[in-house]
Amino acid sequence: MPSSYSKAHVDHVSRILRTADRAPTLPVPFIIVDSWRRSMQNYHLDPGSLQGPRILESFQLTQQRQRVDEFLRIAGDEMSRLHGRVSDADYCVMLTDTQGCTIDMRIESSIRGEYRRSGMDLGTCWSESEEGTTGVCSVLINQEPVTVHKNEHFRAAFIGITCSAAPIFSPSGELIAVIDVSAMGAPDDRRSQHLIRQIVIQSARDIENAFFMYSTQDLWVLRGHALAGYVDSQPEFLFAWDNDGVLRALNPAAKRFLIRLHGRLPQTVCEAFSSARLPSSTDDSLHHLPLLDLYVRLKAPRRPMTVSVPNRQEIDPRLAQALSLAVRVKDRGLPVLIHGETGVGKDYFARQLHDAGARRDKPFVAINCAAIPEGLIESELFGYSAGAFTGASNKGMRGLLQQADGGTVFLDEIGDMPLSLQTRLLRVLSEGEVAPLGSARRESVDIQIICASHRDLSRLVAAGTFREDLYFRLNGARFDLPPLRERSDKLSIITKLLDEESERAGVNYSLSDAALEMLLNYAWPGNVRQLHHVLRYACAIANETLIGVADLPELLGVAAPSLAHETSSGTPERQLLFDALVRNRWKPVLAAQELRISRATLYRRVNQYGIKMPGKGSYE
Fold first, then answer.
1. Which pairing describes strands 408-412 and 448-453: parallel, antiparallel, or unpaired?
2. Contact 410/390 with Cβ under 8 angstroms?
3. What is the pLDDT of residues 72-100, one digit of tens each?
């Protein structure tokens, strides 16, 4: 952008701020003038600045997205739908978190480069204290929809952009995100953005309602609208309460409705609807409440799954103990080495270890040493200075080890790291310094190391493919994760993964007894990763919500018990025994107590009916 445009914008902002207090009318909305004043007086920003917004580093963006992972998944469908409506006019759709950081985005690939140069990209930050007046920061401050059109932006870098943004609130009423639709080269007339603004507001409400319904699946939910045809597709009012009748969630419209009706927010559903008769708990038909002139439909809490849902914290005792010990070791500054078969969840264990440790609020950077091409791994790990090699960025790049400063580095499949890089890594660990490629300057880094490998590093040392000194540097404490076939919490894992797939698909899947028995008795050579893929496959092809043996991959049948049909073999006695074991998570003592028989009798019947106990003996 030419400097003449920048100077003209500075004059424009200065002139309006000088006359704002005495002018009868202003060429920009008052909300914009207030933001300009804060940008100038509170944050000392330069309206003539042409610098683009701050961009998060990759690990920071990943952390920001992980904090709202479920919300992102739900909002993603509406973002794509919204982009489909505005893409022909070259608009992009952005979603930011409550700090103003762009955590999701939709844009046509043909114009992505042009928009990126103007500051619209994943990871860009739009807080008022950094960027001055923008659509996102205005919504964050005022929590209401806004359009910031071209030279209404405070900084000259953004005066070619028009933004329409709207807030998205959580079921508890807190601001959770901002959705923004932006374009370059829009008409100068501000009125051209009126329709776009209304579309953005509607998309924000649709995301809000979808997240509300997702978050309140275990509550009673009342959907309402003044028009009968909109109750299910676009409800205006959403109320949710628990089995005691206590209101647990309200969307913004429902909150305003109750305050207007009562002058305050009632605590219970009985108070809220004292003047109207709600549908009974067994009636999910459409009802009209004449006193409120409202059409409503009541949704009951989600029914429990066929498989009992165990406590989320119920994990194999060996894993629980390993995690507890690993946290204590890591917090003393010792490196941790995780060993286990492929697919046992070494990366998940490492993340849990970081989150439970003293550095939980610092970066967690995961590096798969087997996935990065050998020619790139050195620059990825240690970074490089400007012009260090052909094709290098003219600004240089901070390496992953530098990005993890103060936090944790997880080196997955460390056994596959080339010998030449093992030497450099050893030097970093010994000296606490990193030297980027092409730079003589060394930078201090404070990192804790977690390593993982499915290979036995001691054997690699003996074979001469892994440095012995690095092995002893990394092996401060070794933890061996058990394979899935040996774990006592298989039922808990199956239930958790199936529940996740149900939430992903918006369908409440469950397992037949025979399918569950097959999953519990399979050897799982690919461990938890293979189990996850099998359940995702079954959910994808199942014609009903009850997943049966026919929905499981054929390869599972090789190691599974012989199952001719979906019952547990046909006899009522076997079915009764099998159901009691499932309900009690395959714990013989509890199942025997429920059936009022001795444990010896239970084992005798288990053998009699050919029921294969997962991890037999580990539940006693």
1. parallel
2. no
3. 989 998 999 999 999 999 999 999 999 99
Residue pair 132/152 in contact (Cβ under 8 Å)? The answer is no
Q: How far is CA 57 from CA 101, 403, 586, 592, in A?
A: 11, 8, 46, 56
Task: Please check whether residue 363 is in contact with residue 404, taking contact to mean a CB–CB distance below 8 angstroms.
Answer: yes
Q: Is the pLDDT of residue 561 over 60?
A: no
Which of 448, 444, 470 has the alpha carbon at shortest distance from 457?
A: 470
Among the listed residues 46, 47, 43, the one whose alpha carbon sits nearest the alpha carbon of residue 28: 47
Nearest 5°: phi and psi at 158?
-115, 10
Give me the mean pLDDT over the 406-435 stretch. Answer: 86
pLDDT value, residue 565: 36
CA atoms within 13 A on the CB side of 165: 30
Tokens representing 204?
Answer: 């924000």
User: How far is C-alpha 180 from the chain's CA centre?
Assistant: 20
Cα angle 465, 468, 470 (rounded to 5 degrees) comes to 100
pLDDT for residue 111:
92
3-state secondary structure at position 322? helix
Highest mean predicted confidence (pLDDT) among 160-169, 509-518, 555-564: 160-169
DSSP character string of 97-149: -TTSBEEEEE--GGGHHHHHHTT-STTBB--HHHH-S-HHHHHHHH-S-EEEE
Burial 75-111 (b: 16+ CB within 10 A, else e): beebbeebbeebbeebbbbbbbbeebbbbbbbbeeeb
Domains and CATH numbers, the chain: 32-198 (3.30.450.40), 216-299 (no CATH), 333-482 (3.40.50.300), 486-608 (1.10.8.60)
